[in-house]
Amino acid sequence: MAVNSKKIAVYVVVVFVLYVIITDPAKAADYVQIGFEGISDAAKAVGDFFTWVSDGAQ
């Protein structure tokens, strides 16, 4: 049952993403930009953390 629920959830998300892209491409582009900025900020934070650790955590 869990596998079927997972497939349904993925299907719903894909349909929603396609709906947003088709109905409002500018808003979809904004969402993608926000997502990439979040990923970039997270990667920078991880890099800063490991730099801090390699400097002796001081």
Key features?
58 residues, mainly alpha, elongated
What features would you describe in this structure?
This protein is mostly helical. The protein has one domain (1-55). It contains two helices and no strands. It has helices at residues 2-23, 25-54. Helix 1 (2-23) crosses helix 2 (25-54). It is elongated, with a radius of gyration of 18 Å. The N and C termini lie far apart (50 Å). This is Membrane protein.
Layout of secondary structure:
Elements: H1 2-23, H2 25-54
Helix pairs in contact: 1-2
Q: Return residue spans where pLDDT drops below 50 for at least 5 consecutive residues.
A: none
Tally of individual helices: 2
Mean pLDDT: 90
Distance between the termini: 50 Å
Total DSSP E strands: 0
Report the structural category.
mainly alpha
Query: Which outline best applies?
Result: elongated
Helix content: over 70%
Give the oligomer, counting copies of the same chain as homo and different chains as hetero. Answer: single chain
Largest sheet, in brief, is: none
Overall radius of gyration: 18 Å
Number of domains: 1
Strand content: under 5%
Order of helices and strands: HH
